[in-house]
Each structure stands twice: as structure tokens, then as C-alpha cells.
Amino acid sequence: MDWHQFRRNRISQPIFGWAQRVLPTMSETESEALEAGDVWWEADLFTGNPEWQRLLDTPRPELTSEERAFMDGPVEELCDMLDDWKITWEDGDLPDEMWTFIKRNRFFGMIVPKKYGGLEFSAFAHSEVIRTISSRSATAAVTVMVPNSLGPGELLMQFGTEEQREYWLPRLARGEEVPCFGLTSPEAGSDAASMTDSGIICRDTWKGEEVLGIRLNWHKRYITLSPVATVLGLAFKLRDPNHLLGDEEELGITVALVPTDLPGVTTGRRHLPSFQMFQNGPTEGKDVFIPLDHVIGGEAQLGKGWKMLMAALAAGRGISLPSLSAAAAAFCARTTGAYARVREQFGIPIGKFEGVQERLGAIAATAYRLDAARRLTCAGLDSGLKLAVISAIMKAHATDQMRQAVNDAMDVHAGKAVIDGPSNYLGNLYRAVPVGITVEGANILTRNLIIFGQGAIRAHPYLLKEMNALEEEDRELALTRFDEAFWAHVGHGLKTAGRAWIRNWSGGLISPSPKAGKARPYYRQLSRAAASFALLSDFALLTLGGALKRKEMLSARLGDILSELYFLSAVLKRWEDDGRQTEDLPLLAYSMEEGLATIDRRFAELFANLPNRFAAGLCKFLIQPLGPHRHGPRDKVAVRCAEILMAPSATRDRLTSGLHRGRGNDAIATLERAFSLSVLTEKSRDAMRKAAIDDPETAVATGNITAAEAEQVAEYRKAVAAVIAVDDFAPEELALHGMGGEQRETGRSAQAARM
Ligand SMILES: Cc1cc2nc3c(=O)[nH]c(=O)nc-3n(C[C@H](O)[C@H](O)[C@H](O)COP(=O)(O)OP(=O)(O)OC[C@H]3O[C@@H](n4cnc5c(N)ncnc54)[C@H](O)[C@@H]3O)c2cc1C
Q1: pLDDT tens for residues 660-674?
Q2: I need a surface site. Which of 117, 369, 587, 662 has the fewest CB within 10 A?
């Protein structure tokens, strides 16, 4: 018996049996979800030895001249029209002229190819559009993002028949049809595959002829655009009890297009999601008949709905909410920095207090890293990949970091942001945050179950090969394949252990990095962290196997490390793409130090909680013999980041580019004006302060400032007064335009459900 045979039969065989017992068993829906989409940079990170040059060679996303013209034209025009306060508290919807504008300018067809009448924008352009609109109104942003994300458009493009595409896509692109997508039902939220919405294969009359089709019954809720949708992309469980199609009875989850004017369809009622006015509501169908050709992809796609949904989710999820989140963080950075400069307490701008600077620094770095990750993700999507794991990372972490940035901005603005009214530019964003956290896969589930769960299986260099070998029916072939994958895995594991040991024990000094100027030490630290992550992932998988799926807290921490590695890679890439701007270094340093400290903290938590104490001890010895390596950004870096937000500079403009800057005398335009005047009058105000003179006219008389400067100071003071003003209302104005009646009725229907 040669060595290979000996290894295969005497060593690999028992391990094969053991692996069959410990590795996770998966339902069909789980494995379809796991296998959907592509892997990209996260696979490099999983090797423990990422090839940095590959990251740096990724083309920087850019707008074409046509896309730039759209940003400068229709997007700017739409933003000028939007008045979020009025939409929220007076209109309760986007006004008709905005719906018309959005449809006419094909905002609903950004992802639709030109040959079907769409705009065929890149992922980056699509993201830029959402980002700018989000800086004006979350309601408008959600309205525009939904038809371009998971839904009929994306599903038709990926799976529709040519006939379906030719019919539907031009109508969707022109806004003649408004789509929505119905998956969630009262009993099936996160566990969407457990829906009870049903379709039965049957014969019925369609346009005067008897045809084979589906009788549908559904009750969906939370469906965005449903109250105004003309076509519903519906997910349901399809059955063929009378065997009209074949032997199989349970055909599985299927997705069809259902025109909402068919008999039996009920739509129109609205939910009120966190007081955001985008259209969202329940929909019901009772015995609605559709012919088979309404199934997306036709008969070939019957029962394949879950796979289709997972594949479609992989694209849109990486764009919509991450773009909104990046916009929110940049918006918080620009407004909070400006406010902290013009709002004075104890005789100085509040932005000079370290407590406020701490928050400003955090907001600035969040804006920097979120936008970095958004751009990198768009670059990946624009290379034609459907990024399943990365889009989950982006969705969960971008929305979570947005929440932190918005909270910090609220705290710095204090009463100004708490009191609602047209002068409050933060309150509605604060209310919108939980929507982002909940939709497209609620964050707890995504963080604790999906990111590492899917990441490990899809992006690990050997795990999927081993799992596939275990599933192989031919036992001899299974053992041969398993033997090959397993021993390659062992070799890889030994190399990883060596790398992790050397890189950690040298504090990252003996660690690969490209020639990247001042960023070079951070590449070394990331290479150290990536090797440690690869090692610890292997130990966690080896010692816990399938049980890791239930150990959600451990899985979440591993997922957090993977997510941080992705975000920090994006930060390094952004610094390179931006031309290694020295002035941006504080933002780079803050983002990197904060992320590295999070990674180290998660490692420490894993060492403390891994059930196998020997494995935990060994990993700790190799990775953190003296405890965490990094402890977060230095205070002086936080202060420098805060200062970036409080003074005009190219760095501040880069950080907040693409945000709408307000119109007329609205709250944002007023803040921008006060900020500019603050810069313009700084010298004059300093001169007055030194001379202990408060009145500009006196300062002119004493020769401390000129008459023109006195005028500017007076104007500045007026602008600041407008910024710090908040709204008040007559009691009768707070009747909220009939909202009370609607609330009472909704209350009744919820009460009825409880009885
Ligand atoms: C404003 C809004 C718009 C929406 N738009 C649409 C739409 O257009 N189309 C559509 O089909 N759906 C839509 N949804 C539905 C949305 O996708 C669901 O709300 C979401 O999937 C979560 O379901 P749920 O709210 O029922 O929460 P639940 O499923 O009840 O979950 C409650 C909590 O438990 C957590 N949880 C559940 N299972 C696990 C697990 N295994 N491990 C860890 N944590 C877990 C979740 O993360 C969540 O935090 C929308 C929802 C909202 C609020």
C-alpha cells in the first residue's frame, strides 16, 4: 500500500465518517441560499494571505458622461423639488408632480438595459443616484431604490423569458407599471421560506380561452410600493395536486408577476413605517387566476423561486441600503461639523469641547469608511459579479454604522434635533434608521447567522469542496475527493498557523504589504489580522462543526472580523484611489485603528467563549499572547478628524461630495450659509472678542473692524440665529391632517387580529 492509499484508507476514511456527523446538514432552501451569487475579495481574506495587489488593481468606479449628466440634471432637479417635512407631515406621500418626474426621467429603470428603454446605469451610478436623493429625503430614496433592487425588474433581467422582458421591461423603465415585490407575510418574516401563500395548478378561463394556470391565495404585509403598484412580483408555494403538469405534487416556491387589477387582488391600504411616507402596505389575493406564462421565466422556473430570489438579492442588497447609509453618515458629518462650529456654549463653539470632538471624529471616520466600502462594492458589482456574502456584510454593517453616526449627530445637535419641524434636518433620518436595519434581511439574523455561515462555506478555500465530497453518492469517489480536499486543507491550515504566529508575534512587522506609502503599516496589520482570522475560523469549524450554526454569538464575532477586514480593505483602497491625500490621513488612521481594535476585541471574546478550551488557548497563544494588539484611535487623531468637519477643506468636500446642499432658505441651505459666514467672519469676530466688544458698530467706531466686516458679522449672527431656531406649533396645527382617523382605523384592524 503506497502512502496515498494508506492516507486515504487509514486516515482520511475515519475522518470522513466523523465529518459526516459533525458538518452541518442543510435544507434545500438553506443550501440554495448559501450557493447563490459569487465570491470575490472575501475569498482572498479567507485564505489568510490576501493578495493586496489584486485589490489595488480593481478599477476605481467612475461615472460616464451620460451618468454624470443625469446626476447634474434630473437628480439635482428632483432634489430641489423635495421637501421632506411637507412630504411627511402635510402630503403623506410624494406629490403627484414628483411621481411624474421620477417616472418620466426613468428613475425606475436605472438597472434596465437600454435596449428595453432603461438607463442601463452601472452599479456605481445607480448607487450615486440613491446616495444623493437619500441626502434629501429617505422617502424619495426608498421609492426610487425599490424598483431597481430586488423585484420584478431584477428578476426579469436574470430569469425572465425574452417575451416577458420585451413586454415588461420597457413599461417598468418608463414608469408605466409600478412594481413591488411580495415575499413577507405575517407568519413568515425572517423565515420567509415558511410562507403559507399558495398557488395551485389548475385550468381556468383567461381572455376567453381555457388555459393552464395557477390559482393564487396570499396575504403579504410590509410590501414597499404595494399600495400604488400595478404589478406585484409574488412569491408563493406552488402545488400540483391534480398532476396537471406531472407526477410531482409539491413544486416549491415560485415567483410570478401578478397585475394588481386582476379580480381578487386587494391592495391600497398603507402601513406607516417609522413615519416615513414611502408607499408600503399589505396585499391580499383571494382565488386570483394567472396563466402559467406569468411565472417569471415561464414553466422552466416553476419551483425555483427561492434560488431566483437569493440570486437577485445578491445584487441589489449591495447597493440600495449601503448607499443610503453612506449618504446618511456623510450628511451627519457635514451638518454636525457645521453645527458644532456655529453653535456656541460657554462662549465657544461646542465643536471645541473634547466630548463633542469625540463624536465628531467618530462620525467623520464612519462617513469615510462607509463610502469606501460602498465604492469597493460597486466596483465588484460592476465587474459583473453578484456579491452574496459582501452584500450581506454591507447591508448589516452599513446600516448599523449609519445608526451610530445618526445617534452621534443627534447627541451633538441635542434639542435642535429632538424638536421636530421643518428646521429639523435630522429627526426624520433618525426615524428612518430602523427601516434600514429591518428590511432586506433583518440585521441580527444577517450578522449572527448569514455572514460567517455563508462566508465560511462560500469563501473558505476548502470547506465547500469537503462538504460537496461528503454529499457525493458514489462512496469511492466521495472518499477520494474528500481525501484530496482535506489534506490540502490541512496543508493550508499549517501554513496559516505559521503565518498567524509569525505575524502576531512580530506585532505585524513581519507581514506582507504593498508599497503604499504611509498606509503601509496598516496593510501589515490587516495581513496579520487576516491570517489570525483564517486560523481561528478553521479551529472554530473543526471543534464545533455544524453546531457553529446554533452558536450564533460565536458566528457573529467571526462574521464581524470578516466584515471589518472587508471594510478596512475598502478604506485602504479608497486612500489609494483618492491619490494618497496626506490631509486625509487622520480619517485613514481613525478608520484603521478603530477597525483593528474591533477585530482584536472580537478575537479576545472568541478566546473567552470557544467551548473547546484547548483550541481557544492555543489560538490565543498564537494570536494574542499579550492580549489585544490595538486599542483604537488615539485621542489626537479623533480631534484632527473632528477638525476636518469644522473647517472648509478639500478633505471635507471629498468626504461629503454628492450631497444635496439645500435650496432657498431651507434648513440645510441656512446651515451651509451660517457655516460659510462663520469662516468669512472669523477674523473680525476674533478681533471683537480680543477687544471685548460685542456690538459690531462699536467695533467699527473703535477701529477694530471695518464697516463691511461689521455687516458680515451681523449677517452671520442672523444666520446662526436661524440655524439654532426650532419650530413651534399652534395646538390645532398638531391635529396632523386627519392622521388621527387613519391611526384609529389601523388600530382597530390590529386589534381585530389579536382577538
Ligand atoms: C418598512 C419595511 C419595508 C419592507 N419592504 C418589504 C418588501 O418590499 N417586500 C417584502 O417581501 N418584505 C418587505 N419587508 C419585510 C422585511 O424584509 C421583514 O420585516 C424582515 O425580513 C424581518 O421580518 P420580521 O419583521 O417579521 O421580523 P422577524 O422575522 O419576526 O424577526 C424578529 C427578530 O428576530 C431576528 N431573527 C429571526 N430569526 C433569527 C435567527 N435565526 N437568528 C437570529 N436572529 C433571528 C430578526 O433578525 C429580527 O431581529 C419590509 C419591512 C419593513 C419594516
Answers
A1: 999 999 999 999 999
A2: 117
Q: How far is the CA of 281 from the centre of ligand 1 (A)?
A: 14
Distance CA 473, CA 484 (A): 17
Atom of ligand 1 nearest to the CA of 146: 8
Does ligand 1 lie within 6 Å of residue 149's CB atom? no
**Of all helices (H) and strands (E), which one includes residue 287?**
strand 280-291
**pLDDT tens-digit readout, 355-412:** 999 999 999 999 999 999 999 999 999 999 999 999 999 999 999 999 999 999 999 9
C-alpha cell at 76: 439635482
Answer yes or no: pTM beyond 0.90.
Answer: yes
Residue minimizing CA distance to atom 44 of ligand 1: 445
3-state SS, 312-359, equals HHHHHCCCHHHHHHHHHHHHHHHHHHHHHHHCEECCEEHHHCHHHHHH
442 lines ligand 1 (CB under 6 A): yes
Give the residue-averaged pLDDT of 297-319.
90
Residue 712 and residue 681 in contact, taking contact as beta carbons nearer than 8 Å: yes
Is 435's C-beta closer than 6 angstroms to any atom of ligand 1?
yes
* For the CA of 444, the nearest atom of ligand 1: 47
Instruction: Enumerate long-range contacts of 72-80, CB under 8 Å, 24 or more apart.
Output: 74/101, 74/105, 74/107, 75/129, 75/132, 75/133, 76/132, 76/660, 77/101, 78/102, 78/105, 78/107, 78/133, 78/140, 79/132, 79/133, 79/135, 79/136, 79/660, 79/663, 80/660, 80/663
The protein residue with its alpha carbon nearest to ligand 1, atom 36, reads 445
In eight-state DSSP terms, residue 726 is -
Whose Cα sits closest to atom 16 in ligand 1?
A: 439
Ligand 1 in contact with 63 (CB < 6 A)? Answer: no
Report the atom number in ligand 1 closest to the C-alpha of 180: 8
3-state helix, strand, coil in the chain (%, to 5): 65, 10, 25
| Torsion 706-709-715-721 (CA) sign | negative
